[in-house]
Specification:
The protein has 344 residues and is an alpha/beta fold. It has helices at 9-14, 23-32, 39-42, 53-58, 113-116, 126-137, 157-168, 182-185, 192-198, 219-230, 249-261, 285-295, and strands spanning 87-91, 94-97, 144-147, 175-180, 204-210, 235-241, 264-271, 306-311, 316-319, 325-326, 329-331, 337-339. A nine-stranded mixed sheet has the order 1-2-3-4-5-6-7-8-9. A three-stranded antiparallel sheet has the order 10-11-12, with no helix packed on it.
């Protein structure tokens, strides 16, 4: 049984999650991109399955050393919209606030992998956090603050409570949203102290959970989500469409139903971004649209996320789901076409 987070290729090999013969290549990967697999995730991996979907998300491979020309260290253009350290202001009514750039686990497909890697960005200094909060306070159009990173839930309850107090003092901010993987990958961190630190009397707080495979929704993960929801913190679900992990209707169906059963509303299904060394995870948009079409009609609307693409270069997120209208006809979930408006 794994009792601590695995942070090096050698530790992965010792735990049976990497082939010792691959260590030279994996060390080159780890020198550029951070590695961490929590005990909760390591316990889910089937070492006998070379295509295990949990290992594929978190265990480094030599494929990450292959970069495609279209890939970028900043694939969605965070830097273009970063007026001060720790702030991304891409849309008028909301900002990202990134107080730290570390995570409980490191996804091999992360779109911020250059920022959270061994040579990536450091946590905000007190002066930088002051400047970030001052920026939010100086922009009355900012209605929502999205706390991300890194993963903000690796911060101590004390630091989260202090951050929430700073945000709560900004009157025009009404919504605070935390983006995290922690309830699934390290559910024991969701303690009563952390839950209490998230609450603010004058703000509505949401928690967005990133989960990509139904096996991540363990009983412990569902319990962690329950502690958040029972405290009055509504939850949303975010998923990245990943080749070899969840790119089939049955897996997505089980994942989205599992989220809803855990009281987590599926929100976005992201097309994988053009981050360096991640081409082995990306399918085509057409394949993603076919998957979404296969789910329409077989899954409750509660289980249907919006399939989205973050346009490279900082141009924003757009829905790219399948279309059902065309040529004066509408297609139903079974594929039959009907005139619209109906003939009299």
């Amino acid at each position: 049984m794994t009792v601590q987070t695995l942070r090096t290729p050698r530790a992965l090999a010792d735990a049976g999650l990497a082939d010792p013969a691959d260590l030279p290549a994996l060390d080159r990967v780890a020198a550029r991109y951070a590695v961490a697999i929590t005990p909760a995730m390591a316990e889910l991996v089937d070492p006998a399955d070379p295509a295990d979907p949990i290992a594929r998300q978190f265990a480094p491979t030599s494929a990450e050393l292959v970069n495609a020309p279209e890939e970028s260290a900043d694939p969605i253009g965070d830097e273009v919209h970063s007026p001060v350290a720790g702030i991304v202001h891409r849309y008028p009514d909301r900002v990202l606030l990134k107080p730290n750039h570390a995570c409980a686990v490191y996804c091999r497909f992360c779109f911020r992998r250059e920022m959270v890697g061994p040579e990536g960005l450091r946590p905000l200094s007190p002066a930088q956090l002051d400047a970030a909060i001052a920026y939010i306070a100086a922009h009355p159009e900012v209605w929502e603050v999205i706390v991300t990173g890194g993963d903000p839930f690796i911060l101590s309850p004390r630091r989260i409570r202090g951050l929430m107090a700073r945000i709560e003092a900004v009157e025009h901010v009404r919504i605070v949203r935390f983006h995290t993987r922690v309830p699934a990958v390290d559910p024991a961190r969701i303690t009563p102290a952390l839950v209490a630190a998230l609450k603010a009397s004058s703000k509505t707080v949401y928690v967005a959970l990133h989960a990509d495979h139904p096996r991540e929704l363990t009983p412990a993960a569902r319990g962690a989500c329950g502690r958040l929801v029972d405290a009055g913190l509504p939850m949303l679900g975010q998923t990245v469409l990943l080749r070899g992990v969840n790119d089939d209707p049955a897996t997505l169906e089980a994942l989205f139903r599992g989220m809803v059963e855990a009281r987590v509303k599926p929100y976005y299904l992201h097309h994988a971004d053009l981050a360096p060394g991640t081409g082995h995870f990306r399918g085509s948009i057409r394949d993603g649209q076919r998957l979404m079409k296969a789910l329409r009609g077989r899954l409750s609307g509660l289980c249907q996320p919006t399939y989205v693409l973050d346009i490279p270069g900082g141009h924003g997120k757009v829905p790219i789901g399948p279309g059902y209208l065309g040529g004066g006809e509408v297609e139903d979930p079974s594929g039959a076409r009907h005139p619209y408006p109906p003939h009299a």
